[in-house]
Amino acid sequence: MPGTHLVDSGYVVADVLVRAQTHHQIDVVGPPLRSSSRQQRDGHGYDLHAFVIDWEAQQAQCPQGQRSVKWTAGQRQTGESVLRIRFDRATCRACPTRQACTSSPEAPRQLTVKPQGYHEALQAARQRQATPEFRAQYALRAGVESTLSQAVRRFDLRQSRYIGLARTHLQQVLTATAMNIVRVIDWLRGKPLGAKKRPAGHFARLVPDPLAIGALATAGGTSPTESPPPAHGRGSGGAEHPSSVLIRIMQNRYWALITAPATFGHSE
What we know:
By secondary structure, this protein is α+β, with helices and mostly antiparallel strands. About 40% of the residues lie in helices and about 10% in strands. Helix 1 packs across helix 4.
């Protein structure tokens, strides 16, 4: 198994970082999710990164130099173990930078952090994300999402067709081989990259097909691209009313749509 895994942000969480390194000696590399704190969302204020945590003394120090007065182990509703750190109420109420720290008018600032190993692993991942070395290393993952999408949508790789690791591995190898063959064929045919992959919607189907336009011209009909002869619907100045223009365009699109199938499927 590779010693380094380049993953998306959904896998860069504290639990995965610690278990991958501890149990499998795997370095999980990816952009961690941003903090959900109000200070992080607003872009100003004292979020968790502004506090210094002394794990041995079981205290935290705020940016103003004040130390916490309570350290309590607890759990989230999901069962995840956390530490709740609270500062002194009177000290927080008298702090001149209180607005940058908490939005509560009375309660003191409280921090909720993960246990030391999990907290430090997540903080290290966030610090690494800001380095040039991370950007150069993570660039190797560019394009993998489109490859996975192609494997799932065109080659049914969402689920294994067989039971057992050996058969599943064989399916994955054959799927990867088929993807390479398809890409080589597309390259030989000059198929441009980034072409539209999804079928056109109902409204897009109203656009006249070039074959339908040619068929109408051959049959002596009016092509949607041709200007219609002057008729009613024009004002005294000779300008066509907007409603008449819209009706004519929609009639031409609809005519092209219903006549297009007639140009296909004929056998002599």
